[in-house]
Design brief:
The complex is a heterodimer of chains A (407) and B (323).
Chain A lengths: L17 H10 L2 H16 L9 E8 L6 H20 L7 E8 L4 H14 L4 E3 L4 H14 L3 E3 L14 E3 L4 H14 L7 E7 L3 H16 L3 E8 L7 H9 L4 E3 L4 H13 L6 E3 L7 H6 L7 E4 L8 H14 L5 H20 L4 H9 L4 E3 L2 E5 L5 E2 L2 E7 L2 E8 L3
Parallel strand pairs in A: 1-2, 1-3, 3-4, 4-5, 6-7, 6-8, 8-9, 9-10
Antiparallel strand pairs in A: 10-14, 11-12, 12-13, 14-15
Chain B lengths: L1 H31 L6 H19 L17 H27 L7 H20 L9 E2 L8 E7 L6 E6 H23 L1 H11 L1 H6 L4 H26 L2 E2 L5 H17 L4 H22 L4 H15 L14
Antiparallel strand pairs in B: 1-4, 2-3
Helix pairs in contact in B: 1-5, 1-8, 1-9, 1-10, 2-3, 2-4, 2-8, 2-9, 3-8, 5-6, 5-8, 6-8, 9-10, 9-11, 10-11
Classes of the chains: A alpha/beta (407), B mainly alpha (323).
């Protein structure tokens, strides 16, 4: 025999899962053996099918490593805090809640695999995730087909919940966020902008969506878009776009991008001597933004899901508990993860069952849930209706300016 | 007028960076007739080694590397970091050539090409590991003070606007110019340069004439890597938000520099410099005057156009294959 071919029958359940898969794929067709492997594994390490065990399992897929690692880590920390609190208060329906988190490395294929693993093998009753729209869109069909409710803490693109009736979110959606930015630009005392320029990432669905909605809302509110410039993820030089924007003499520059690009754009804006205020969206929310841009980002505004300076006692108690557990100040993603986990556990408790349909029905009827990111109501399209906070960077600290209510 | 001047200034700075990187592609191609795909990763190493050294050395001169608004250190610190990065990358270039490419000297050219892709992937993924540079973007502390050297007010449509020329841009153009003139001197006025040109002309005949071919090839790689390291250092000065080593930014940067080398006539040292500035001009002026949505399209469309009209590039000469 030229080499040893591992057979599926050699696999003991506590061996890594590649063992059964590799063996099966070599000897038989993948389609025959993989579901059997899944079934086998779920009996041993899964959650006992949800209802029969003495604990309830929630799944979470997140980018714990990779370029958006801060997004996944914060969300996971928020969820862990919520579950710890719920368990301390006696759990849900008398059962403890357990979280199973898989790393999707910020890769859409990995997100799909992680969701498949959670719903088919681990037998979770509900799935939480993701931050980035592209990753949520990869996992949502898996959850929908298997009838397991999925709640995205912070994907703002409208497409996510359009996947099906099991997909929810606890954050606002991009059309509202763009409306909030446009309204703020038109009406805020220090801006009162008549002319706006937009600099957006043409390779990002998030950025393109916000650009369209902002342009629509800004025009509706009586303003004019004087220049629209594009860049592509990976660009480092924005001088040509910024020079063109400077020539159009706007009152405000709207930059719906992620914090890494925004940092570089802000530095180059300052170098070109452009003093026009910058305005952005929740992609700016990262403790790294001030670290990259320094003084160049001073005075810029962005819309966000929550503010650390919100005087609401519920928010302040969340912040102090989070600090005690994780040793850092929670960002918006942590707050949304916290709210998402609490809403899911509440729905499971109200449903009194762990069936996907029952939980989804209770999630859909959520009204006025007192989250740390504002009062959350789920509308007919399974999106959260809630206000947006406008934040200004002051001395490197995101400072609360005002709240924009839904229309 | 002001916008034209501002765009021209950006073109010069960006063009210098493309030219420096393109030189490495063109020199290796000139001698070994293969495209060193790992070259753009040497640029990445140059930038990240500069960053790491800066983080280490800032406390030594009493500055805080984590404060984004920290004042600039004395000029000698920047100069020594540049030299250290250049030396480190030259050594890495030497090692890569010695252990990845030299064993394949007699193998078909395709094998070397695939090895180069392998080296490139290796460097990218090693760089991402947390004990190397890590997977997150980092902020390069300012090595030069962010002063404006000139601020000219020029008339434009709709009133006068300023042209801002910063120290960083002038330093980039100046350092690149010095390096390129030094290279020109080395290639055309020294014995090593003559040997390089001889090896590029005919490798076997040079060996028969007593030229130590292996050593000359090593020198070429070290020289190319040194220029790439300098480009990486200057790049980190100009764009302080450094992306992680496997990020698309770097792939695109390498690709554009490679296009610059091809447009100028691959194998031709002066052509690479010309190509770098042509690419930068097309990119910057296209983005300003036409539309920023098609910035990369202009570059690659120009490549196709030039390859159709002059397949050997702007300054390349057609070499007739002997049958």
């Amino acid at each position: 025999m030229p080499r040893h071919v591992p057979s599926a029958s050699f696999c003991v359940p506590d061996q890594p899962d590649w063992c059964s898969q590799v063996g099966a794929a070599r000897m038989f067709s993948f389609g025959v053996f993989f579901p059997m492997g899944c079934l086998f594994a779920s009996l041993l390490i899964g959650c006992g099918g949800g209802s029969s065990g003495d604990e309830i399992c929630l799944g979470h897929y997140a980018s714990l490593t990779g370029a958006q690692a801060t997004f996944g880590r914060s969300t996971d920390n928020g969820i862990l805090l919520a579950i710890e609190e719920i368990n301390a208060a006696g759990g849900v329906n008398g059962k403890k809640v357990r979280l199973i988190t898989y790393d999707d490395k910020g890769d859409a294929r990995e997100a799909g695999t992680a969701a498949t693993r959670l719903v088919t093998r681990d037998g979770v009753v509900a799935v939480l995730g993701e931050v980035a729209t592209s990753l949520s869109l990869a996992a949502a069909p898996v959850c929908q087909e298997n009838g397991i409710p999925m709640v995205s803490p912070s994907s703002t693109n409208t497409k996510v919940t359009q996947v099906g009736d099991k997909i929810f979110r606890v954050c606002f959606i991009d059309p509202f966020q763009a409306y909030a930015c446009a309204k703020f630009a038109r009406e805020h005392e220090a801006l009162k902008a008549n002319k706006a320029a937009i600099l957006y990432d043409q390779a990002s669905g998030y950025s393109v969506g916000l650009r369209e909605e902002f342009a629509k809302s800004f025009a509706k509110l009586g303003g004019t878009i004087v220049s629209e410039q594009a860049y592509t993820e990976g660009d480092q030089d924005f001088s040509a776009q910024l020079t063109a924007i400077r020539a159009s003499e706007p009152d405000v520059i709207f930059i719906p991008g992620y914090y890494t690009d925004v940092g570089n754009i802000a530095i180059q804006t300052q170098k070109l001597g452009i003093a026009t205020p910058l305005l952005g969206a929740d992609g700016w929310d990262s403790s790294k933004l001030a670290g990259i841009a320094g003084k160049a980002i001073e005075g810029a505004y962005y819309s966000n899901h929550y503010s650390q300076q919100d005087p609401d006692p519920a928010v302040q108690s969340f912040i102090s508990k989070y600090k005690a557990k994780h040793g850092e100040t929670p960002d918006a993603l942590a707050a949304l993860g916290y709210d998402a986990a609490r809403i899911v556990c509440l729905a499971i408790g109200q449903a009194g069952s762990t069936k996907g349909d029952d939980i989804a029905a209770k999630l859909a009827s959520t009204k006025g849930f007192p989250g740390v990111t504002g009062k959350i109501s789920i509308d007919a399209d399974r999106n959260a209706v809630k206000p947006a906070m406008m934040i200004q960077m002051k001395d490197g600290i995101p400072t609360y300016v005002t709240t924009i209510q839904p229309e | 007028m002001a916008d034209f001047a501002q765009t021209l200034m950006t073109t010069l700075a960006v063009g210098s960076l493309y030219a420096l990187i393109a030189l490495g592609y063109t020199m290796v191609y000139g001698i070994l007739k293969f495209i060193n795909f790992a070259h753009s990763d040497i640029v990445v190493l140059g930038a990240w080694i500069s960053f790491t050294l800066t983080r280490w050395l800032f406390p030594a001169v009493g500055l805080d590397a984590h404060n984004p608004d920290s004042p600039a250190p004395p000029l000698w610190l920047g100069a020594s970091i540049l030299i250290a990065a250049v030396v480190a990358c030259s050594l890495i270039g030497f090692v890569i050539e010695r252990f990845a490419y030299r064993p394949l000297r007699k193998a078909p050219r395709l094998n070397v090409l695939i090895t180069a892709i392998g080296v490139s992937l290796l460097l990218q993924n090693l760089g991402q590991l947390s004990f190397m540079f890590g997977p997150s973007p980092q902020k390069m502390p300012a090595l030069l003070s962010n002063v404006e050297l000139w601020r000219l007010s020029l008339p434009s449509s709709g009133g006068a606007r300023n042209v801002v020329i910063g120290l960083v841009d002038v330093m980039i153009v100046g350092t690149s110019a010095v390096l390129m003139i030094a290279l020109e001197f080395l290639v055309f006025r020294t014995k090593i340069g003559t040997a390089m040109r001889a090896v590029s002309y005919d490798l076997e005949a040079s060996a028969l004439m007593g030229i130590p071919v292996d050593r000359i090839i090593s020198y070429t790689f070290m020289l190319g890597s040194a220029l790439a390291a300098a480009a990486g250092f200057l790049y980190a000065l100009k764009y302080p938000g450094l992306n992680q080593p496997a990020h698309t930014t770097w792939v695109l940067l390498g690709l554009k520099a490679f296009v610059a080398a091809v447009i100028g006539g691959i194998g031709n040292v002066r052509g690479a410099v010309l190509g770098g500035f042509v690419i930068a001009a097309v990119e910057q002026f296209g983005a300003y005057y036409l539309s920023s949505s098609y910035r990369d399209v202009y570059v690659f469309a120009l490549l196709i156009a030039i390859l159709l009209v002059r397949p050997s590039g702007l300054l390349g000469s057609t070499v007739r294959e002997k049958v």
